[in-house]
Amino acid sequence: MPFTRTGLTTLLSTAVISAQLVSPATAAADASSAPLSEAAAASPAAWMGGLPDDASLASLSVPGTHDTGAWTGSVWSRTQDMDLSTQLESGVRALDVRTRHYRDAFPIHHGAEYLHLNFTDVVTDTAAFLREHPTETVFMRLKKEHTEEENTRTYEETLDHYIGSDPDTAPLLAEHLWRPSGGERVPDLGEVRGRIVILQDFDASKEYGIRWGGPSTDIQDDYRVPTLFDIPEKWEKARDHFERTAAGPPETLFINHLSGSGAPWANPREVATGGLGFDGVNDYARPYLQDSAAEGTLPRTGVVMMDFPDQALIDAVVAHNGRTAAQGV
Description:
Shape: globular
Number of strands: 10
Strand order of the largest sheet: 1-10-9-8
Largest sheet: 4 strands, parallel
CATH superfamily: Phosphatidylinositol (PI) phosphodiesterase
Distance between the termini: 51 Å
Helix content: 25-40%
Oligomer: single chain
């Protein structure tokens, strides 16, 4: 019998309470992924190794995670099942790092909720991965999150401290942080192998990387999904952005969010993976991307930011590399 909005209220309320107790189904409905291109057929931990140095990062198809640090937290804050190191080993190359400026440091938050993680941890784990896999590069969106309290310096000054002075992070960032020169631009892969490329989602007096929402980017991030009935509309927005990416300027870095939520009726896990007879956004995206990779109908995906991605979905994004990237576009 079809669901109605009125009849679903009790079921949704029950789901919100029980969601923290139910283990997610991480296997895809169809676990078989499209064949990987030759360039991406390496281990997920080193898939960039087969791509040419002169490939622009804008030409690549890059799996990413939304609210990367939220593998713990409440049902409304949690967005991932894998910790940071596991995400990177699985092929994720774009991180969404939400930094609260508190007591001259950067604890990692999702909204008001502290995720028991700090910027030092993020830098340490990312640098360790890049040292082990020097062919790779990692986008890192840095965003101010929640309130700023009990500080003696600006956000920019605290970031400069991490980069230049902090004994735990400065040596790592000296080795692994890409610093732009000659104005904002999207670099080629060969210039940034083994390095972090900041996506700068904060105001500052200088360039730390590529400005989030700046002239070099085109972003879809309509995260509002009021109920489970609205998941198909969210998918349509993501699919439209994939098509926009395919037809867009080759020098533009396209970023597409599959993530969304809408308290109190649609938490991040339900939007991503479905529930109560509804497919999640990931369930729509997985076969679409597997088919487009196999058929060559989508030359690039851009950066795809996801909640609770499984390996099949990550692989489906990676499988788009090789055609456009191999041309050094």
